[in-house]
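User: I'm putting together a teaching handout on how multi-component assemblies are represented. Below are the sequence lines for each component of a complex, exactly as they appear in our records. Could you produce the 3D structure of the whole assembly as structure tokens, so the students can see both representations side by side? Please keep the chain order the same as the input.
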Amino acid sequence: MTSLVVHVSDLHVGKKESPEIAEPLARLIDRESPELIVASGDLTHRGQREQQERAAVFLRELGRPVLAVPGNHDIPHTVPARFTQSFSAFAAVWGTTTPSFASERLAVVGLNSVRPWRHQSGGLAPGRVAHLEGALEHAAPGALRIAVLHHQLANPPWRTRKAPLARRDAVVDRFAAAGVELVLGGHVHQASATRRGEFQADEGAGGAMVLLTAPGLGRPRPHRTGEARGLHAIDADERTLVVRTYLWRDGRWAATAERRFPRGGGEL
Ligand SMILES: [Fe+2]
Ligand SMILES: [Fe+2]
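Assistant: Of course. Below is the structure of the complete assembly, with chains in the same order as your input.
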């Protein structure tokens, strides 16, 4: 089983780290052999440069290109640095808060949904969506068009009070118009995989968009022992998008679900 993308999120390096996941993760990445690893934010717990560097070493040692966007934990916790140097450490290590990756099979655009003046919630200013629209204009024909941002656009309210991205419906409409087929996010530390039409009618509104939220790769809060840990592996052919979900169980990465979605607004 190989994949195009492995999607991880919420490492929270610097808080209750678990080095035992690293070696099994390296073996999983070798098996899945993804073209790209996507990390959808909260790479660190406090946004410190040293934490960011360790997160980068951890992900880059997996031996694949890495596309990372910031989460609300990737900025300084205290003022004034929270406002004056919000993304300094992230940008110093990762180069940009709005990365992109393009190949024959992939067109991936990362967006920064972090708002330093808010504690948890995320949003995308219209100009940030314009960045995605511009980047996707150059996508290769047939490439899987992916948007990456930390804050979730959709998830059932299983066990979180974290609201979806601000102005979610307007953002989803613009993503659909730009031909986005897949949205990757995190933030809630729980997995979900849904097609847009499952929560918002999508007839005649562009393609069928799939929205994935990754479980946390880290589990930063010791008291939340029930919090899921896992990742997604994503593959696609011309007609079908396949999402395999792996969970960390009993000291290993176990494949626990495989979900299939039609590409291009069709049916399975
Ligand atoms: Fe997180
Ligand atoms: Fe978060």
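A couple of points students might notice: The CA atoms of residues 49 and 89 lie 5 Å apart. Helices lie at 22-32, 49-60, 81-84, 88-94, 126-136, 168-177.
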